[in-house]
Each structure stands twice: as structure tokens, then as C-alpha cells.
Fold:
Amino acid sequence: MSETPKDPLGPGTPDNGDQGQGTTTQGAVPAGKNDAARNGAGRDRDLTSWLPTVVDSIAAVVLALLVGALLIMFSTPRVVESLSYFFSYPWDFFKFSGEAVWDGYRALISGSIGSGTAWTRTLERAAPLICAGLGVSLAFRAGMFNIGAQGQILLGALVGGFIGFHYDLPPGIHLLAALLGALVAGAAWGAIAGILKARTGAHEVITTIMLNYVGRFTMLYFLGKEALQRPDSDNLLSPPVDDSAAFPTIAGVHVGVLLAVVAALFVWWLLERSTLGFEMRAVGANPDAARTAGMSVARVYVSAMALAGMLAGLAATMTVLGRQDSLTDQVAGTVGFDAITVALLGRTTPLGTVLAGLLFGALSAGGLSMQGAAGVPPELTQVLQALIVLFVAAPALVRGIFRLRGQGRKADVMATGW
Amino acid sequence: MKLEIKGLTKRFGSFTANDHIDLTVEPGEIHCLLGENGAGKSTLMNMLYGLLEPTEGQIVVDGEPVTFSTPGEAIEAGIGMVHQHFMLVPVFTVAENVMLGREQTRRGVLDRKAASRLVRDLSDRYGLKVDPDALVENLPVGVQQRVEILKALANDAKVLILDEPTAVLTPQEIDELMAIMRGLKEQGTSIIFITHKLREVKAIGDRISVIRRGKVVGTAQPSASEAELAELMVGRSVQLTVDKAPATSGAAVLEARGISVVDPRGHLVVKDVSFEARAGEVLGIAGVQGNGQTELIKSLLGLVRPDAGQVWIDGRDISRHNPRESLEEGIGYVPEDRSHDGFVGSFSVRENLVLDLFRNEEFSRGPVLKRDAIEANARHRIEEFDIRTETMETPVASLSGGNQQKVVVAREFSRPLKVLIASQPTRGVDVGSIEFIHKRIIAERDRGTAVIIVSTELDEIYALSDRIAVMYDGRIVGTVDPSIPREEIGLMMAGATTSAAANGGAA
Amino acid sequence: MTTTTTGPAPASPGPGAPEAPVRDRADVRRQVRLVITFGLVLASLVVFALLVDDPAFTYLLGEKRTAEFVPKDGNATYISWGAVVIAAIALVLAALDRFPRGWKGALLGILVGLAFYAGFLMWAYTDQAEGGIQVFIANPIPGTIRIATPLVLGALAGCLCERAGVINIAIEAQFLSGAFFASVFSSIAYSSLVFIPVALCAVFGLLGGVLAGVLIAAMLGWFALRYRVNQVVLGVVLVAFATGLTSFLLGQIPSDHKETLNDPQVLEKIEIPVLADIPVVGDALFNQTLLVYLMYASVALVTFLLFQTRWGLRVRAVGEHPKAADTVGIQVNRVRWQAVLLGGVFAGLGGAYYTVGSTGAFDREVSAGTGFIALAAVIMGRWHPVGATFAAVFFGFMWNLQNQLSFVQPVPGELLGAAPYLATIIAVAGFVGRVRPPAADGEPYVKE
Structure:
């Protein structure tokens, strides 16, 4: 996916060099190409250009759910058994399949948006995904593929959690200190990869993956210290944060969820309205031109990764300060990796990331009740998520399957090559 | 082999790149295809070579209609092509490049010896001196081009297409190439020679077909005058020179002393270069591509830190400046490869017009961009520089080459400059835009800016320069007055220091 | 550009400008880096040597204590101070800018590395007496080879793909699915009614691994070459997909069917008669499973294929300059498909290591991110199969060291656990830096 659309005409595009004519007809430029290109930038195009991507995304979700249905079918013993007498009595197969898929997906929906508690669970699961996904998106727009959200979350959780349960501070200040600690730690961990890329050219995909593992061992190391050990437990487990450091709840949902929305607005403002965002987008799209225009590519890499890490640190507070989870080496769950898929599904835009985060939050919340109510293994949601992103990344495939028309815009995915 | 093209048409969507083109190439003929950038020459040749499929029309070889859906089939039919951008694998040796696609093996192992032998045989037969075991990336472009020709000859090409082959050569190398072409012609090979340079078609062509906006608009004999050919090519009478008053040179604004640059591969590519650019004067830096001009210019801007030497602007040392500081010193820069360094393709015209200006107070307050000011700037520049774009939100990548360059030029000219550095300011740009950009450069000079033009096109150097510095092998071999004959500059571009260099325009 | 060019006139220097000797800044940086590195090595070696109180230690030429291998005693003093001397020599050479380049430099670098290893071991293994358990320095080679086997195979897959211009971050996905299906195939072969000799069940598992590796490779090829999905993104997504799918399928295996589906036969060790008797290394290298021998052969095969055959020339051409290959009649995407699929074979074999090649049953964490380490080995080895093999062996060595040292006191276990990953970061950032990948790596080829 080369970022600069190559002129498909090669040198064939004529320019109306004849200035005497004075007409500015661009009739010679092929309409199709221009349509595709026009969708790429600008502000009045926001609504129209978003449309095809929404269609693509929905189609990808539908397609993934279809594949998921197949998986549900063949993971249901009754359905598999009915295959053995399929030719003599095919109705059973279709009936059992239909029931299995219906039960599974009904549980998925009711478990995610079917009730107040389901909504709460969805929102609480979506919030960290949104924050970390914003971090991945932001780095992506600056030309960095940040796979390190997992490690950044761990470090954020470690520092934020430690401040939260170790120190004794007045309520508001305690929360602020813990929050700040998590943000700074995440940012610092993220910045390492940025600094390494800027100074030595080490590819961020490798370094962030490795930093995830290093982060996990760092967490384990500190969990082994006495100051972090939960007194009543033999496992490597810390106490939960004090109530004075926890997010307050409103209508059953902790305030951290609101912070995720604020973070999305901040990222939007940063990318679209600020000088630093302008530099980030320029560096992400064409680092050579950015450098020639006097931008410091190194500075952009470092600040983009620091901000990305900060957002991952914010994601960490959702569990540690929001749900008041204890610190373990599993405290990040799979949020850091799911954040990548969230960002890609959201096409690395803030709004898209929020929507994708909500979808994945719902999948994750519904996945649990799917297991409980319909016996569908929770790993299915993981497969679904991967499939959704795979299909979103290959719009041509999805369009071919659904016979969708239209050009659509290329995904806003920037990194090509090493 | 006789090659006929009958009514060949290529459409991309609603746009017709080639419109019913008829062309006949007789055996042993050098047939020139003349047309300006973007006229559709390359599209035609890519169809002939199986890289593009024609929408309509026919290719006829020796009376037999043929279709090529892959280059392999075109090669099979005896068509060889030397592409404008060489189709050589840089990390392969010459022999490997020549054998690629037609490899001989012995018991499954590549027979590199046989390939070397083949290269040696061919180079002896056609007088194309090449070391078969040299790595292509270490060869100068002139030699790389010979490798391209060898590749075609190794496939027994009967018709050889040369696509803009002279763009990267010194005048002497062009002469050598023409000698090679004549030799091939004597051995019966037909040649299609694609160019936009009038001088060359007159020198070598047997017949000239002129192509404009995808159509063959006429044929001419080599005896036709340059003005006639130019008018045929562009479709109106063309001013071949730039109107300019004599320069009123002022004080030296930019001074470079003893600049040396080592490239990332460890080669010393700029060797102890010193020069000065004066206010109100155009200094042309001539030379064949790859003789250190690129690195020299980048070191002036701080894009590459010079390994030795200093650069001063108005007496201040800027050699340790980063690009941003250099730009703030009042250097304007039009890079040689605009889509690589000059603009961000996915950014809109509006955004690209402030790509290096957005930090100014005019366009931002602290961390916040001033969107209204940026928009007003875009409206203003689009009008002033006649940038043909649908809206200011159109991504620059979808503009034509000439308009892309105008975006870069408009941006760089839209702030007060002390020094303007323009590398290949009109490469791949249509004639109308060339005229416009040249006029603006001279206007900038007349405002008292010191202008440095780097160009590999001698025509452009002569048209603009008040003094000409010639680079060869990382050095400035001499600085001369534009009254010096082309032949002498040609010799200097190949490394000779002439007597003219001593008494040249340095005075 | 050199001066041995075409110009009719010989190059003569500019007017009266004697060429000032210019020292490349990169060269200076290299020297500074070497001096700092060796300085740190020397300092730590001196500290290690001084910290040794009782120079007695025991070592073992084999990996485990057996009848053949009995612990022997050694004296740390000579080894510790010998290491210090080697590091000091290297430091002096670097400080005087006399440190050799090319293979000599590499050799000397390896020697310094070994010296550091030796000095570190002396510090770690001496003064252990009070713990009561007898610890001895075991031969690191057998473990290294074992751990390196899948890494090497994965790195070979990476080399093949990336030389052809397709970025393969999905090695981890190939490992996971290879491991899973190797286990399933081997288990089915053993428990099913189909007549397969017991000894071949594990080999049958390898086949399953290969099939799974090729399947993921086919997905990679399909999306990357047909639909031109960004290959870095694609790789990460494929890893997520394979992780989800294998754990989903693992969850599908009912516990009462475990022995028929996920209880594979494991590959037996095969001793190669004469070679295995070579002292120190023989047993380590030539008393291994079939998979390890396949790994040796694969390195030679891939190197031969890439650099000595018609196909290899085309693969490299397609990865460097696809359009040039197209213009001489090579079908770019077909060659890329072949390379990607063949890579899948090796990666699948590598994945099979984690089940039938070593411990047996599949588990969610069998590969533990080693696919990414294999990828790092590709980059560190500069996209050359032999270089990548050395890098993979280096990682195997680090891992093995971590395993061995976990019984020793002075080093915290978490630090050791992080060591292979830290080593990767340092390797990618410090030693490799900006390396040159195949020019068209990751770029889909589109015919106009």
C-alpha cells in the first residue's frame, strides 16, 4: 500500500501547458482516479469519504461473523454428529446449525448490549481498548507501527498501581498522582522505541515486541519485591489500589470511560489542528519531504511514541484505577494486542478507533456470556477480531464477495517496507 | 525486421493516452520519436514492449500481426528496450543482470562463467566496454546504460527502443552512444529513439515522428529547423531562450569553503568544494548526474552534515545548522526529486503550500495551526502561480508533474529569501511550466536573491546562469562564463580542466 | 562513484586543491562505539575477576551428568584474568583505531564475546558452596542447538520471503499453527486405525507442521500478493489469527479425546556414528533428532537455492527490482508465491519443533514469541541465510544461558528471563542499525 498513489497513467497525464487558453478544465484527468484521490484529504470530504469505509467495515464485520458462524457450527457436537447422516436426513444438520449459531450470537448480543450491566461491561472493556488503540493509531499516523502497547500498559499499571496502593494521600490528589504516574511510565516505555528508531534506525516492530517481553519481566521482578506483595496471598499479586486512588463511578460506570472519550478528542485535535500533529502526519506520509521542510524526524518519532505510550498508560489506569484490579503479570490481558486490531479496524482515525474499540469491547463482553449461555469457547472472539481486521485490510476481497460497487478509499495505513 | 504500428490506442478510464497512433519502422532505420514530457511516448513504447495492453489497434512485425501480453513475448519477437529508468538490479553483477530471465545452468547450478563470456563477446562485437563481474551499483550511469543495451542485444533484439537515453549522459557520452547506435544500425538493427531534445533528433535520426497529447501530429526530416520541430512538438511557437537582463551582481551571500562529504557507503563524493553565490546573480552548477551535486546541495542545507568545510551566509557559519535553521536563515530550496523530498503526496495542495512555513507566526500560534491563514495562503498561491488544481484540498500526488513542481516553487518563493537553491527545477515538467518557472527564477534573481541552479540539462544551465560552475567526480573543475561554447563545458563535465576555466567567469 | 569511469580525459583534481584527508563520521562513530563497548566489557570483567573469592569451580563436558560425562574441577583465576587480558587488547586496538575490519574484526569480536562469557561464568559459578547444591558449568552447545533449531528454520523462512520482497512478520503464526498441527497429526497417526509404524508417527507430525506452515504462508501470499494488504499489518493480524485459531481449536479438543488428538509421539534422537564421537561438540551436534538434521540441511539448501540456482537469482531479482525482472519476462508474483510457500515449509517445520520436536503436547504458549526472535535474526543476519543462522544460534545461546543460570545465585531470574529480548534490542539497535533490506521488500508489484 504505497502511500503516494502512483499516477496510473505514468507520463501520460497531459498538462494544460497552454496558458493562452486560460481554461482550467481538467477533463483530461481520468475521473476515476481523481475520485479516489480526492477522497484522501481535505475537510468538506469528511462525510462522503467516510461512507465507503463504513460500508467496507460493516461488510468485513458481517463476513467475519459468517466465518465465525461456521466455527460455531463445527464446534457444536450435535451439528458434527448430524453430518454423519446428512444425506439421509439433512434437516437435522441445518436445524442444529441454525440453533447453535442463533444461540451463540444471541448470547453475544445480549451479553454486550442487552442490559444495563451488559452495557457497563462493554464500556469498561472498551475504554482500555480505545485508549491503547488511540496510541497505536497516533504512532501509525507518524509512520510507526507500535506493537508495544502491551508493555507500555504493563509499565503504566506498575507505576500507577504502586502509587495507588503504596502511598497514603488525600483522595483527589492520590488519584491524580497515580494517574500521572501511569501516564509518565507508559510514555517513558514508549519513548524507548522512538529513541531507538530515531538514533539507530532499529525497526520499531522488533523493538516494541521485545520491549513487551522485557516489560513483563520487569513487572515480575517488582512483583517479587516485598513492597508489592499482597499480604494475604501466596501468588505474585499486589494489593488493589486504595479507594482514594480509584476512579469514582457514575451510574455504575467508572469515570475512566469518560477519559477515553477525552483522549480521543485530544488525539483528533492533535492530529488535525496542531503543529505537532501536522509534523507527525507529514513525517508519517513522507519522512524525506518532512526532513527537507525542516521538520525533525527524530523528534517526531520520539514524541509520537511517547504520546502513544502515554495513551497506553491511560489504558492501564482503566483496569488498575478503574476496576481496581491487582497487579499481576497478566494485568494487561490481551488489551495491548487487541489495541492494534482496534486501531487498524478504525483506520487509524480517532473516531474510527472509538467505534472499533466499542465493537471489540462488546465482542469481549459478549464472548463471556456466549461461553456461559451457549457453550461457545471465548477464543472465538479472538478469531473474529483477527478476521475482521484481515477483511478490513483487504477491501477488494470483501467487495468481491459482496459484489459491492464503488471505489472506496485506501486504508489510511502508512507503513510500507522496513 | 519491419515494425508497423497501426491505430494503436490506449485509454485509462475516460482519458486517452495514445490516440490511434500509426508508425512504421523500417529495418536498419533510426526512427526518432519526439515529444515533450507527458505526450504519451512512454505509454506507446510500453505497449510495444508488452508492459501495457493496447485498448485498440495492432502491432505488425514483418507483415504478421502480433500481440504481446508480457515483455517475454516482445523479447521473443525481437524487440528490446532500454528504459529511461534502468531496469537493472543494482546488487547484481553485470553478467547476472544480462543473464536474468535467460539463465543457463549446468546441473542446476547457475553458469556464471558462460554469462561472463557472453557479455565479453557482445561487448567486443559492438564495442561496448563493460566488466562483466562488476556490481552494477558501482558503475557510473553511462556504463549502466551500456549494460542495458547489452541486455537487449543478448536477446537478439532486432528492434531496439531507447527511451530518453541521453538524459543521464555527458555530451561526450552522448556522442559515444550515437556512435554505438550507428554501429547497430549498420548491423541491421532498427532503433526507436525517444527524446524531447531537438538537437539529438537532428543529429542521429533518419526520420522523425512528433507526438503531442497522445497523437502523432506530424513527421519531419532531420533537416527541419529546431524552431519548426519545437513548434510541432508543443503546438505553438516556443521561446527557446529566457528573457533576462544582465545580472547586477552584489556581494557574496552564501560562501562554501572546502566542503567534503562522505556518503553512507563510505565513498568521498564531494571533494573539497569551494564557491560563492552572489546577490542578484544566478550560479549554475552543471554536471552529469551523480557527480556530487546532490550531496553538495544537501550539505549546504544541513540535510547532510559535511565531513569537512564550512558554509557561511552573510558571514555567519551555518555548517552545523539543521535543515530548519538553514531554512530560517533565508534559504529557499527546490529539491531535485520533488515527489521524494519536495512534497507530501497525500497532503492537500493547501497543506503542502505551508509544509515548511507552518511554524511562522503567520500560520500558527503556539501549538495551534491558524487554519484561516493557511487557507488564504493557498488561495493566493494557487492564483499567483497558476497551479491547475481542482480545489485546494486535492492531494498533490494527483496533480500533473508541472503543477506539482509549481506547488513546491510557490511555497519556496512565498517568503523572503537570501539564497534560492533549485535542483533540476524543471525535470519532468511540461514546456508551459518550464517557461513559467524560469521566469520566476529570473524574477527572484532580479529582486537581489542569490540563486543557485543545479541542472544536468545544459540548455537550462545556459538559459539561466550568469556564471557556470562545472562539477565532475565531486569537484568543481572550473567556473566559467556562459559565453563559453558548449563543447568546452562538455569536456569539463567529463573532467577536463580547460584553459577557459582559468580565465572564466570567476572574475 | 569511482573515478575509473568513462570520461575521455583523465580526472584531474580541481585548481590547486590538494585533497584533504577526510575521515568519515560514521567511521569515527564506529571507533567510539567499539571503545565504549570494550571499555565496559573490560571493566565488568575486572569486577568479575575481583569478586571471585574461591577460584574453584566444576565443569562438565556434557549437558547432564551421565556415566560418560563426570564433573571436573577447574581454577577460575587463570580464566578470569585471561579474559581481562583479551578485552584489554581489544580495547587498546580500538583506541588506537587499529581494530581490524571484515572477517578478522568479526573473529576478534567473537573472541571478546567469548572472553566476556567465560569471565561472567567464573563469577557466576564460583563461591556457590554454601547453597549445598553442587552446580557445575555444563556444556552450552547441546541446549543452544536445540533452542536454535526452530529459530533457524523460522529465520530461513523469513529470508526466503523477504528476499522475494514479501515481509513475513507472521513467522510466529506459522510456528503456532505448525506446532499445533504437528501435534494433532502425530497423535492421530498414533491413535488412528491407519497403519503407520510407531517410529514414523512423529515424522508424520512433521508433515502436519509443514502443511500448517504452508497454509499460513498461503494466507500471507493471498492477502499480500493478490489483495496487496500492507504486509507488516498483515503479519501482525495473521499472528493474532493463528493465536486465536489454535487456542480455539485446542479448546475444542475434549479432555477425553486428548490422547487421540493432542498427545503426540516425540521425535527420537538419532546418533550419527563417527561424528558423534568428536569431543565436546560431537554429541551436541550429531546426537540429535531428525528435525535438527533437517535444520542443518535446510540452511545449506536455502543458501544454495538463493545464490546458485536460476530460481534463486530470480527470487532475488524480484525482491530487489521487480519491474526489472518483469521486463525480462519473469512473472514476478509467481516467483514470490513460490518463495513464500517454500518459506512456509521451513517455518512449519520450525513450529513442529515445539511439539513433536521437543516436549510433546501443544499448549497456548509453546512458541512464546520466538517467531519474532526469528524475525530479528533475519534482520541481524542481513537477510542472508547463513548470517540469519548465526544470529539465531546466538539467540539460542542466550536462551540456553538463561536456562542454565537459573540454578545459580548471583543473577536475578527476571533479568535473565529478559536477557534474550534485551539482547535482541541491543543487537538490532547497536550492531545492525540501519541495514539495507531487499530494495522492494514489502512493496506489492503492480503492473501498470
